[in-house]
Amino acid sequence: MKATWSVFSMVREPVHILGRFVEHNLSAGASYVHLFFDDPDDPAYDTFANQPGVIAQRCDSAYWRGLNRRRPPYVERRQLVNGRVAYERCLTDWQAHFDADELVVTRDSALGSQLATVPDSHQTAHLGTLEPMVPPEDHDGPVPFRRSVRHLKFRARLHVYGDDLQVFRNGLFGHYQGKSILRAGLQGWGHGIHFPRPASAEIENAIHEMDNAWIAHMHCENRDLWVNRTLNKMRDGSYNLRTGNYDILPYVAPEAAALDNPTEEDLLQLLTGFYDRVSVLSEDLRQRMEDLDLLQYHEVRLLD
Question: How many helices (H) and strands (E) does the chain have?
Fold first, then answer.
């Protein structure tokens, strides 16, 4: 027995990233992917507007007028509004809220089969977060992924990441909260960022933790991708790390304290060193992670 499921996502991504996202979800068994193009002039819209398995919504002024409201100024608020629209129009048994750099991965059985086993008393199926790591050059096989270390005691975390733990406290570059899939047909409910939003504060959201399904957050799948994104965030004072602000150099590279005004080349070198220490799967790091069951391997197409 299988449950049907679909995916909602508000997007501002290049065509090649959206293409992988759509292809991955449809191949994993999604009935369709509902894309909301946040930029009304996004040229990627035309690529997906008539693609089978995709519902493409351009979020232009006509769209917001049709909802009888102004376009919310903040990204997260627009996500919530669009998520409610997607959920109200849901055509499947379940609907997920994933970003375009988040790919669902499973073990032992397909997601639809796993969703069919969620107790009727639970509205939400929750997926924990994984992040890709860089395997050795001679690696030939599925992509290695790391789990969060939040469930481990401090000494065990320190054993894995050493001094880098002070900025890598969760064992992940990005969010540790995971993502959720919401059962369809719940009056007044809508998608949240990480967890659904019940119709009222008095309603309890019963969450079923998925033991064999995860969300693979691909935002750090290669060194250049993560380093360039981090540099952009360091230049933007509105960004914060959950483990501190984006003045992270003293944490990831103590030697940076001697640099009064680090150059772009200095920053690249320091951030690259940090990335390599925690994300390149050396034999030593692999052994430490496997000792604590922090590694998984999944078939995912990496970006070129």
Answer: 10, 12
pLDDT above 70 for 236 = no
CA triple 176-38-224, angle to 5 deg: 50
Pairing of strands 102-106, 5-11: unpaired
- Residue in 147, 105, 113, 108 with CA at minimum distance from that of residue 129: 147
Domain boundary among the residues 196, 220, 244 is at 220
Amino acid occupying residue 248: I
Is the pLDDT assigned to residue 207 strictly greater than 80?
yes
Average pLDDT over residues 251-259: 59
Same domain for 216 and 267, yes or no, is: no
Confidence band for 255, pLDDT divided at 50, 70 and 90: low
Average pLDDT, the chain: 91
- Give the whole-number percent of the chain exceeding pLDDT 70: 90
Cα dihedral 107/111/113/115 (nearest 10): 120
- Provide the whole-model pTM: 0.91
Q: Produce one character per residue of 1-12: b if its CB has 16 or more CB atoms within 10 Å, e if not.
A: eebbbbbbbbbe
Q: Is residue 295 part of a domain?
A: no
Name residue 241's amino acid.
L
Which pLDDT tens digit goes with each residue over 4-36?
999 999 999 999 999 999 999 999 999 999 999
Distance, in Å, from the CA atom of 275 to the CA atom of 268, rounded to the nearest integer, reads 10
Query: What is the Cα–Cα distance from 251 to 30, expressed in whole angstroms?
Result: 41
Q: How far apart are CA 123 and CA 132, in angstroms?
A: 29
Residue 211 lies in a domain: yes
Range of the domain at 253: 223-281
Phi-psi region of 151 (alpha: psi -120 to 50; beta: other; left: phi over 0): alpha
Domain co-membership, 56 together with 186: yes
**Euclidean distance between CA atoms 63 and 188, whole angstroms:** 21
What's the rounded Cα separation, in Å, for the pair 26 and 117? 21
On whether residue 240 sits in a domain, the answer given is yes
